[in-house]
Prior knowledge:
mainly alpha; two-stranded antiparallel ribbon; 2 strands
Amino acid sequence: MTGVDLPRWREHHAAAVTASEELKTALAGLGIQERHYRGIRPAMTSTGRPYVYLGIMSAAAVESITTALQHALAGPNRPESRATDITSPDATAAER
C-alpha cells in the first residue's frame, strides 16, 4: 500500500465497493442475469484511487446488457426512435 494512509485507503475502498455493488444492483434491476456481471468487483490503485473492475465479458453478456440499457433508456412512454445515443456527438450535455 504505497502513497495513501490506511484511513484514506479504507474510505476509498469503501467507495469502490459501494460503486461496484450499485452497478450490480442496477444491472439486476434491468433483468440481467448475474452470470453476465459476476466479474464486477471493487479495485484500488497503489495510490488509493477507487475503481470498479468490470473484467472480461463475453460478447453475449455485453449484448444482453446493451439491449437492456437501450430498452430502459427508451422507457415505456418514449418511442425507440427518440432514444438518444449518449455517445453521440449530437447529444446535449443534459442528455449525456
